[in-house]
Design a protein that fits this description.
With 729 residues, the protein is an alpha/beta fold. It folds into five domains: 3-198, P-loop containing nucleotide triphosphate hydrolases (Rossmann fold, 3-Layer(aba) Sandwich), CATH 3.40.50; 206-398, P-loop containing nucleotide triphosphate hydrolases (Rossmann fold, 3-Layer(aba) Sandwich); 403-509, Winged helix-like DNA-binding domain superfamily/Winged helix DNA-binding domain (Arc Repressor Mutant, subunit A, Orthogonal Bundle), CATH 1.10.10; 530-604, HRDC domain (DNA polymerase, domain 1), CATH 1.10.150; 613-725, no CATH class. Helix content is 47%, strand content 11%. A seven-stranded parallel sheet has the order 3-4-2-5-6-1-7, with helices on both faces. It has a six-stranded parallel sheet with strand order 8-13-12-9-11-10, sandwiched between helices. The protein is flat, with a radius of gyration of 31 Å.
Length: 729
């Protein structure tokens, strides 16, 4: 199989121009008949690694997948691209299942999705002999390991498959990065001689942000109202919270559903379906929601409660932005969540397990409170080093926290800890330290005579939480050390003592508890005509509903954004858009081309049509943005404000210069400032001024002709708007 034909097949069937990192290498290895293990993060495109080879191979590729709900989805997507794939599971009626088995026997399919429990049934295994099986793909391979998060015992027997199929290559895929799970997969599937692919776990399109939790429901509503068209997942710890939050969101006009393991299975499925089909924009869920949720256009994941470990946080946030477009991950952090979980730890009977859980909580809290780049923290957890100075995709890198000189307060706090220790020869926790500093006269203070200490009350100028917070920062910097005891006491480290002696300056970042703005700039988006995008989204929904599949089976958001940016006019232009293969062009091309054509017709202002086209229909409906500016002009204005030239905007939006200039004129008429020197020269301005003096017609044609076409319609229009010469129309 040559590389060229693999690339051709990628374009023809899936509509993609190029491979994502490691995809090609993985496909080559498996096509050479080698076993392979691929550890790639969510959204990296693992499915394609077995789907594309299955198309070029002779015979049947079996895909083992743990989730029945996911199979139909994947097969729907493949069929929409014209691939002969099928699945077998308990949701099928007996006759349908028999029919599929017959067709498998006749070699009619290239791919079969099946759960391990069914595959390993003796009856099923014995059929394999007659099916010309040429490869086995084990998706979500971490299910093989007890150390993973979704252990499925039947996965451990998968190596037996080769007793029935001969020596076919196995490709195991997972997004779980921990070493232990990886080793387990290799051992259980006997992949010792396999080629191993390990990708970076960085998700460049995800933006990580942590803010102090203060009224989670209002914060979630607030966040969601900034992106009402986007799909999002809100993770909550308890089932009750998911339902309460979903109800609050609904009361505020959002389409939200709840999802947790305690729901009636029918309701659970209904809610999940509504989310997948873009009918409910938001799902408020416990961690039960997630694995196998293949929805590519989840635009944000909010953690309304702190996750219990970093691995979980990574997996859950990882469900955002599978399509590679920018997505947001927002964690609402509160110290009291941490305290609450610590209390629950007592319920864990096994001491070792309890310690591990506690450690994981500490790591998670540290991640949230830390003032360093979030990517460094996250990737560091998986043993990966992030070497770039600024990740441009987390709150700290996008908006570095202000540094301040904390020397005096640090000295006060460290001395306080030392003095308490000297006075009583025992250690106390940060709460007590803060009480002493703020001059409290509590019962404990008086019992231990801490009000007699010289440092009692020297920190009165700040409230107690300030001192507790500062103490935590000093713990992170190693100036204080936490005791191993259950009272969470602290002592001053050698480093802290040195610091006091040297009177060294200490610069600290403002704590994450200091609130700041919620919205940070997004990078990497595909700018497009948002009005058209919404129109095409609606069309996609209609087509998807008619076929009873989720919208992304028709086209992804990435594809719709390209449509709304490039305005394809014909089949060839359509095929140039990522995500449009032969089959989808055939099925949906006309519908989308028509919608795009109609849209362009409607949104180009009539007076900018070519002069001879007197027969153009007046636009029946010009979409307006909130400020009265049409969406399309808004789009142009946004690009203009980003510093794009008219020529660049023309290229991005696929419009003529007069159209773009018309948008700018419209923006000026709505009070926007456009720098005139970026459009026309002083000489041109004088000429226009003279020509337009006393002129009050709507049509600029006579003026244009009077100037003998030296100055374009667009410039005239912009000048007229800027000089407020626009006649009332
Ligand atoms: P994973 O299983 O690794 O989480 P998926 O296989 O679900 O990822 O793929 C995520 C998304 O990326 C899908 O929408 C898929 O169509 C898209 N994708 C995969 N490979 C490519 C590629 N080479 N070019 C563009 N998009 C791709
Ligand atoms: Mg996958």
């Amino acid at each position: 199989m040559s590389l060229q034909s693999l690339t051709r097949c990628l374009k023809q069937t899936f509509g993609y121009d190029s491979f994502r990192p490691l995809q090609r290498e993985i496909m080559e290895a498996t096509l050479q008949g080698r076993d392979a293990l691929a550890v790639l993060p969510t959204g990296a495109g693992k499915s394609l690694c077995y789907q594309l080879p299955a198309l070029v191979r002779d015979g049947l590729t079996i895909v083992v997948s743990p989730l029945i709900a996911l199979m139909k989805d994947q097969v729907d997507q493949l069929q929409a691209s014209g691939v002969n794939a099928t699945f077998l599971n308990s949701t099928l009626e007996a006759t349908e299942a028999r029919n599929r088995l017959d067709r498998l026997g006749r070699g009619e399919f290239q791919m079969l999705y099946v759960a391990p429990e069914r595959l390993m049934l003796p009856d099923f295994l014995s059929r394999l002999k007659g099916w010309k099986v040429c490869a086995l793909a084990v998706d979500e391979a971490h299910c093989i390991s007890e150390w993973g998060h979704d252990f499925r015992p039947e996965y451990r027997r998968l190596r037996e498959v080769r007793q029935w199929t001969g020596n076919i290559p196995i490709l195991a895929l997972t997004a779980t990065a921990t070493e232990r799970v990886r080793e387990d997969i290799v051992k259980q599937l006997e992949l010792e001689n396999s080629v191993k692919f390990l990708a970076s776990f960085n998700r460049p399109n995800l933006k990580y942000q942590v803010i102090p939790k203060a009224g989670a429901a209002a914060q979630v509503c607030n966040f969601a109202s900034g992106r009402p068209e986007d799909s999002g997942i809100v993770y909550c710890q308890s089932r009750k919270t998911t339902e309460a939050l979903a109800a609050t969101l609904r009361a505020n006009g959002f389409s939200a559903v709840a999802y947790h393991a305690g729901l009636d299975p029918a309701d659970r499925e209904k809610n999940q379906d509504a989310f997948l089909r873009d009918e409910a924009k938001i799902v408020c869920a416990t961690v039960a929601f997630g694995m196998g949720i293949n929805k590519p256009n989840v635009r944000y994941v909010i953690h309304a409660d702190m996750p219990k470990n970093i691995e979980g946080y990574y997996q859950e946030t990882g469900r955002a932005g599978r399509d590679g477009l920018p997505a947001d991950c927002l964690l609402l952090f509160s110290r009291s969540d941490f305290m609450k979980y610590v209390r629950f730890l007592d319920d864990i009977p096994d001491e070792h397990a309890r310690k591990v859980a506690h450690q994981q909580l500490d790591q998670m809290t540290h991640f949230a409170e830390n003032d360093a780049c979030r990517r460094v923290g996250l990737l560091g957890y998986f043993g990966e080093t992030w070497t770039h100075e600024n990740c441009s995709g987390c709150d700290h890198c996008l908006e570095p926290r202000e540094k301040w000189d904390a020397t005096v307060d640090v000295q006060k706090l460290l001395s306080c800890v030392l003095r308490i220790r000297q006075a009583g020869n025992f250690n106390v926790g940060l709460n007590h330290v803060s009480e002493v500093l703020t001059g409290s006269m509590s019962e404990k203070i008086r019992r231990w005579k801490h009000e007699e200490l010289k440092i009692h009350g020297i920190g009165k100028d700040q409230p107690r939480p300030y001192w507790v917070d500062l103490g935590r920062q000093l713990l992170r910097y190693g100036l204080l050390v936490a005791g191993e005891d259950q009272f969470q006491t602290v002592t001053v480290s050698q480093q802290g003592i040195d610091l006091l002696k040297n009177r060294a300056t200490v610069m600290l970042s403002r704590s994450i508890m200091a609130p700041r703005s919620q919205s940070l700039a997004r990078t990497g988006d595909i700018p497009c005509d948002s009005g058209l995008f919404e129109r095409l989204r609606a069309l996609r929904k209609e087509l998807a509903d008619a076929r009873n599949v989720p919208p992304y089976v028709v086209f992804s958001d990435v594809t719709l954004r390209h449509f709304s940016r490039d305005y394809p006019r014909d089949d060839q232009a359509l095929l140039n858009i990522p995500g449009v293969g032969e089959k989808k062009r055939e099925d949906y091309g006309t519908a989308f081309l028509t919608a795009i054509r109609e849209w362009v017709k409607q949104s180009v202002p009539k007076e900018f049509e070519p002069l001879d086209s007197a027969n153009v229909q007046p636009s029946p409906r010009k979409p307006k943005a909130a400020n009265g500016l049409s969406d399309t002009a808004h789009e142009t204005l946004a690009l203009w404000k980003l510093g794009k030239t008219i020529a660049e905007i023309m290229a991005i939006r696929g419009f003529k210069d007069t159209t773009i200039e018309g948008h700018l004129a419209e923006a000026i008429a709505h009070g926007e400032f456009i720098e005139p020197r970026a459009i026309y020269s002083v000489a041109e301005e004088r000429e226009m001024q003279a020509a337009l003096a006393g002129y009050d017609e709507v049509s600029l044609k006579p003026v244009y002709e009077q100037l003998e076409g030296r100055i374009s319609y667009g410039k005239l229009k912009i000048y007229r708007a800027a000089a407020k010469l626009t006649p009332a129309t």
